[in-house]
Amino acid sequence: MKLVLEFLLEETCPSTARDCSINNATHSGLTLPSPTICNCCPYCLPLYNKGKPCSLGGAGAGVTVGRCGHGLTCDRDTQLCVRMKTKCHDAQDDYDNRYEKGETGIMETRPECDEKGNYAPYVCIPSQTCFCQSEDGEKLFGEIPYTGVFVNMPCQCSRMAHKIEKLIGKDVPYPVFGLRCTSNGNFNPVQCLNNICYCVDPITGVKRGDKTIDLTNEYVSNLPCYDANLDLNPPDEDAKPPFNYTTPCYGSIQEREALLEQSRIEGYNIDYFSSFAGLSCLPDGTFGRISVNSTGSRICVNEHGERLGDYSAELNTPEYTNMDCKCALTAHVMRDSNEPPHCCKNGNFRPIQCRLGQCRCVDSDGRQVGLESTDVTRLACYTPDWRHC
Question: Strand 67-68 relative to strand 42-48: parallel, antiparallel, unpaired?
């Protein structure tokens, strides 16, 4: 039967474009299902390089058998494939221009863009960490030490959580959560919907296997994908059903939701209590990394709510308003390193970082900006009190 099918395909299927089989710098393509009724024939969609003729479609616009390649689009006026105009491509152009002039630092890296011209899912800072980023290049949840070897951080869970918060979160009365990510931006292998938990692929989030757990009767550890190291709120040994697979942060939101709903039913005016300002959970289900201590000062904390170092900022100060704890958190990720970054008193990155006798300016994420120098006074970000921020 197999031989008959192969014979029929050879006799009845049209020949495909050769681009997919060549797949090099000049000829490439996408192998797709055939646009026929049964999808039984092989099909290759050619990807045109920059400067090649293309079509926008529509009456009288002409027809082409392929489309512009990754990072390219069909120019409406010239009908040629041109580079997309995106924020990431602009950043690449800026880097390339400065590189030609010898104005890039040794720890600067050229921005990586995906096939749509958006920023790649993650970025690595040499000798520091790799972290997830949005399509616009914004640093997201998910950070690991940079080891200098090949790194693969799909960051799909972190990116999806960011999109949910950005697109949906502002239009609903309660904070939105559902996806649970791990510290590297991947999906937690255990996901739950209400009381039903199941296994998923850590990279794609697609459900794995048929086994599910009903927390009403059994604990989530009965799932084959359960990892105790990823459970930030394990149950007590004497816990009895019904169980839960939650975190203190999720619990706080659910408690407030229940209080508000009950108050509405009973007819109370709850406008004063209806705000969730300051109460939000990170994609791993933990509270934010900035907390407030008994004196009213802000402090940096880890995923367990434990204070990191002595980083703090007093109320009604610029350090309090601008506090992001990004450096403190990066230093926490790099706690086994001999060269952690230098942080300000409030846990932010110090604008000048030094390593092996060379100093450089960095942005709020710790990324180098411009050339390094052995003389800090020659740096664009230099201030007389640069050591004390």
Answer: parallel
